[in-house]
Model the fold of this input.
Amino acid sequence: MERKLKHVTVPSSEITSQSVYLSRRDFLKAAGIFSATAFLAACGLKLPSTPGTGSGSGTPTQSPPMPDNAQGQTTDELGNPLNTFDEITNYNNYYEFSTDKQAVNPLSANFKTTPWAVEVGGLVQNPKTYALEDLLKFEQKERVYRLRCVEAWSMVIPWTGFELSDLLNEVQPMTSAKYVHFVTLMDPTQMPGEGDLLYPWPYSEGLRLDEAMQRLTIIATGLYGQPLPNPDGAPLRLLVPWKYGFKSIKAIVKIELTEERPQTMWNTIAPNEYGFYSNVNPEVDHPRWSQASERRIGELSRRPTLMFNGYADEVASLYTGMDLRANY
Ligand SMILES: Nc1nc2c(c(=O)[nH]1)N[C@H]1C(S)=C(S)[C@@H](COP(=O)(O)O)O[C@H]1N2
Ligand SMILES: [Mo]
Done:
């Protein structure tokens, strides 16, 4: 497999070890993806037609439901074109490797993602440590999501992944469980940024249990029909598309159900800037910049930021009665 990096040329022999090749093949098999290039090859394919919104005149009152099989789609459900594989894998926030977005790709090239296990425990009936291969047995879906960073840039990305609720239903949260805590691998020998004492490593994040059970919340295992690239959080990362990107934690090794709201890395560092909820909200500015608009990578002018990143129809009801300014 060739990998094109922006700044350095790495011979493919240095990147594609046998184990990576095997995991890629297993991934494609498990995910039922027989043509890894289907995403790339598709040109001009339309969104699947949506019952109830297709006929008649005027604008539909409901945005189309998120399709589960987005393979071949060239846009998101709002018509925004996908970002390219090159953009998605060369402009990354991943502080374990670097705070320089373009340095993450080369610095993560040799990150070891096999074998990989995720410990799922805490307040659950059936705690279990899952090998990556076990997690690929959950129904893998193709979802095109917008990713909106708190820094006010965004991308449109075609992911493969499974609904977190499938996993949580299997381990069975106890009635006392109210939150889900996620933790990234701690391995400073592989992740040089974890030697930086300014940050309370390992990276961790959290969701309320009902947010974690929402169908849009997925664990991504792939991108553009390939196993998840290292700079995007291989071998698996969370995606919560209506929240700022930092909630979508990468390289997860632990998922714990808790009664108390968990400590999370960015909220611990700067609670006034990075709230626990961090729902995308154009009306609540970051203390140091506006959140009303954003720069889509690949576009020249800014575009308005959408409430809940455009997923309000599906997620606004999670926050009924809550003051979204106080609970930022
Ligand atoms: N473990 C870990 N997860 C992380 C980050 C990180 O630094 N470490 N950065 C977050 C931020 S700020 C964003 S915007 C997204 C970026 O995802 P991408 O690089 O795949 O676009 O990952 C999030 N997940
Ligand atoms: Mo971000």
Observations:
- Residues 1-22, 33-63 have pLDDT under 50 and may be disordered.
